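Can you please make up a whole protein chain along with its backbone structure tokens because I've never seen that pairing?
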Amino acid sequence: MAGLALSFAEPLLLLGLLSLPVLWWLLRVMPPRPRRIEFPPTRLLFDIAPKEETPSRTPWWLTALRLAAAALLIFAAAGPILNPQTGLAGGKTPLLILLDDGWSAAGSWDMRIKAADELIANADNDRRGVAIAPLSDPARDITIMPAGAARVALQQLTPRPYTIDRSDTLPAIARFLKATGDCEIAWLSDGVDAGRGTEFVSGLAKTIDQRTLTIFEGGAAPPLALTAAENAAAKMTVKVLRTDGGLATGVVRALDAKSLPIADARFSFGAGSRETEATFDLPVELRNDITRLEVAGERSAGAVQLLDKRWRRRAIGIVSTSTSDTAQPLLAPTFYLTRALAPFADVRSGERVAPQQAISQFLDQKLPMIVMADVGTLSPEVHDRLVSWIEQGGVLVRFAGPRLAQGDDDLVPVKLRRGGRTLGGSLTWEKPQHLTAFAADGPFAGLPVPKDITVNRQVLAEPDAVLATRSWASLEDGTPLVTGERRGKGMLALFHVSADMRWSDLPMSGSFVEMLRRIVDISGYTPKQGAGVAGEASSETVAPLRTLDGFGIFGPPPSTAKPLPADFKDHATLDHPPGFYGPAEGPLAVNTLAPADRIAPLDTSAMTARRASYTNAEPRDLRGILMSAALALFLLDAIVVAVLGGGLAAMIRRRAAPAAIAFALVLGGLLAMPSPIRADEGSDDFAMRAVSQTRLAYVVTGNADVDSIVKAGMAGLTLYLAQRTALEAGDPVGVDPAHDELAFFPLIYWPIVPGAPKPPQDAINRIDAYMKQGGTVLFDTRDAVEAPPGDNGGAQTPGMQALRDILSSLDVPELEPVPREHVLTKTFYLLRDFPGRFVSGQTWVEALPREDDEEAAARPARGGDGVSPIIISSNDLAGAWAMRSDGQYVLPLVPGEPKQRDYAFRAGVNIVMYTLTGNYKADQVHAPALIERLGQ
């Protein structure tokens, strides 16, 4: 049914609902009206009040009750199924599954894999071949394979971390359909159009022709994406994108280079809007530390925005001709400029070369902003290159000085007078001048006007009609302190004082830093090829350092990743997946989406296709519920009829005593029945589940965080066992020692939670019986790193104290640290110790009697007649085994050595094999005799 996850096994039976009006008419039919015959004695009966009255027609509510019961029976006969399995039209033709596997499918990847797996299972039941075509790989050969092979191929697929172009796969689909002929097609769409989506829809419609197509869309949360992060003057913003619908609010999280959170910013979408902004109002020092922005709770590479130095600061070149730069560096203009720009810009100084050469180098490096302190006459070549650079978006900031005052060039925003105005000079002031105002339409608008800045000398501007419009800051006498103008796409600014303390104390003020910050924030040079700018394309390339997978998780670069140009600014591709490229100290960030990229809902309405939706819910047959409801309504109808007809009252009067006795007997029988205990309620299901496969068990502690980690850890160990050994165990089972039967499990993992209440004595007794009957309990205190220094430090942790409290009620044998010759170290892998998340804890087992030296030397493995019933560790084994559904590990390791996690899994394999096989390795003592006998 459209909009509802409900289907019917026999939908034609719903036509029976059309009979309800006929049934209503039949229920309302009245018998013929009786004839009236005047009979005089009848007058005597009028004064007799009747004890019971029967209505002349059926009440409307009783009719509605009967119609509802009939409708429920019809619905039940039609076989309603809630959350039905995703199915197709069926048939014997092959099945082609088209799978969207770009970044936009990662957030609901598990639902898509589940839907595809159900399709393959249905095809397997119908003995149909299956072909899988991920739409990210146009070069992949689409072939028909058995359902089992298709299921394996499906599990090997992972979402791509970049935007896929579905249209590129149309030729491969056309070749497959031409070679196969008739087949059924299922498209598992992510519903996102990131470009050329309409072209793919129309092309696919032409390619499949009249073949049956089913499109899976809806039922999954629409993806969110980040793009166009910008580090502005006082805040950092990032655009949040969505398709129609989806979340109305959310959180963007900022992380530093160590993946530690810095801040969160909330965002909200307006009605019908597809993009919004998240804003981080942080000091610039914190914003400069941000290397990653991500949408909280969204698992996709598109929901991650990586930042490098281009977002943290602008690169600015400083050129000065002052001799004090080398003679007295702490008084030089470059010193004040560097200190003012360093907090928010990458400052590059041209101190070691001539000013003309330094300017040429900065232009070749395509810097967005250049600061020239008292640079006078420029060569014609450098002058022309600067003019072209400004026209294309560069920002040139100049500071006055003796050389500029005597120079004569047009790279100033206003015309200047030769010479300067100084305190006590020809154009004298009676007293130093103060800053009085910032222009309301200039870049310094809104800054507080400082009263402590004094100016002793300045370069004067010639008064003209445009001087007032180009003045950004003025002195008390109306003369400009800072002037500026836009030229082309760039900007030219002039401070009419020097960049050091000779002409004013402006360079020592905080306002100087804020004024330069405002100018830096409006700089954004985008170079173009042409004269005046270094036209040669940079040949420098950078190799991938670490990249994102489709779920937005960092990992090593894939084999398909290639180096890219150092000035790469496009979005990620197959050859250049998102991540960091280049040296670790200054990497280049590549993101899934470019600043101009946008996403939209994919319109498939033009295609003739069946529609299906994704779901995680299990199918549920509603026939039993509807039948029960119908029977309840019929029973209620019978009771109502009995009450209205007086039959129930008459029966009660005639049989009051027998009915009371029967009711008392039934009630007494119910009260006398023993209340079933929990183990009996589901004992059969629990036992069948436990014995159908070998399963590992763990004790449910009641702590949600601990239980989730332990469950993931036991599942991870089960998967590792299936990959490395012949044991294919079932899913791990959580048990409650006080109620569940423990004898089905060879090994029970018990995580100790400090501060948790001690288990009841009944649970302790059941554990004791389990251990005596051959079971093994692995107690893990998970606190090796909390042990104080010293030989007995491990026994003083909170977890060990809690374990001692539990073991005080158990009949525990004598324990010892696992000896190196113990069979536990040799059951599958050769191990020296048993690390988990931690490596400093000891592993304890039942102490075995020591053999004499000769026998110990002859036996390669030491063991007793049985398996140790108890194993104690503090290394948090389950924490090291715990894996998420996407294959990533949940918890980090301490100290995190390269092979620590692999050794932790090996320790788990040895423990499981030890509990299953006993001490068979110890019997290798007989191997020499057997070999000798076979040799004879």
About this structure: The longest helix spans residues 623-645. Residues 423-427, 525-538, 673-681, 853-865 have pLDDT under 50 and may be disordered.
